[in-house]
Amino acid sequence: MMKAKYDYLIVGAGLYGAVFAYFAKKRGEKCLVIDKRYHLGGNLYCENIEGINVHKYGAHIFHTVNKRVWDFVNSLVEFNRFTNAPIANYKGELYNLPFNMNTFYQMWGVKTPIEAQTKLDEQRAEAVNRMKAEGIAEPRNLEEQALTLIGKDIYEKLIKGYTEKQWGRKCTDLPVFIIKRLPVRMVFDNNYFNDSYQGIPKGGYNKLIDRLLEGVETQLNVDFFENRAKWEGVAERIVFTGKIDEYYNYKYGNLEYRTVRFETETLDRVNYQGNAVVNYTDAEVPYTRIIEHKHFELFGPYLAACPKTVISREYSTEWQPGMEPYYPVNDQRNSDLFAKYKALADREEKVIFGGRLAEYKYYDMAPIVEKVMSIFGGYCL
Fold first, then answer.
1. How do beta strands 309-318 and 289-292 pair?
2. Average of pLDDT values for 52-78?
3. Is the pLDDT of residue 381 over 60?
């Protein structure tokens, strides 16, 4: 029997596949990476418009507490000092995120942590007492959970509308575990992440992907499923990063996904909204947020070096065939269905399933890198 041409066929040129290919090559193994899109990088891909690196599939900010992961990605490309500090717009009122003393001052006019804590405790108690009066012992849905964690004012202005747009479901129909906790900071700190390391590759994510796949054979505009028998025969093992239900031909039924539609516009002005990310938290505005891409890489006096700006409005919607699946739907039906597919995957000897679609799990970027690094052990040093 002829030996397969490659050690690994990697289906999907996103972050998981690219990091896997990098370390496999370092270990002396030969990989072929295929992707059905016209570009490498999966959802990290940046499109250059008017000299601005536009995050084509939504904002991506690398953040981690793992110094080993941070040192690894910085050994490939230099990262900038971008700090994620989103703004929430509720019917024209602006609030800082995450919930911190700036938010509480904007919401209630309180100026000290004691004043803010007192207000939060009052509103939490109102929610708990209302549930007790109705004979409800524990929160039954996301709305009840949020009210007991953060109170009515912040829930109604900053959580309810945004969450319902994001998931396409009423908060009363969403499970509790989506927000088991809500971060509250009693300091004036708008840094969204608590992680020690945070930034974006200088020059965009394409530079990171290009370094990861340097010297690795790639083929684009290739759909694994259109000639599955051929692709399964080219390598000893497969690394599959696509939809796990599709891999098994939807044997148990379709997993549900949410997707995002982008409305991108180039504007003849230096600065549109003054921030990279502005969330629109009221239900009346159809989009969830506006991203202004130049703020990811141009700061202070350098902002004016580019006379134009590019914005993207994001619309969250239910996934349909032909759309890009973005994140799983966290409910019991889909969790149970995924468990059936995972049982099949666990029995595979020559297939590795990795990434948010293959594992039906929402991943940030750093945990994906960390997970692949753990597979390769000493070759990551």
1. antiparallel
2. 96
3. no
- Give the span between the Cα atoms of 366 and 69, in whole angstroms: 7
Question: Looking at residues 273-296, what average pLDDT do you find?
Answer: 97
Whether the CB-CB separation of 4 and 234 falls below 8 Å is answered with: yes
Instruction: Kindly report the average pLDDT of the chain as a whole number.
Output: 94
pTM value is 0.93
**Average pLDDT, integer, range 102-130:** 97
The catalytic site residues sit at 181, 185, 258, 289, 314, 362, 364
Lowest mean pLDDT among 118-132, 170-184, 214-228, 274-288: 170-184
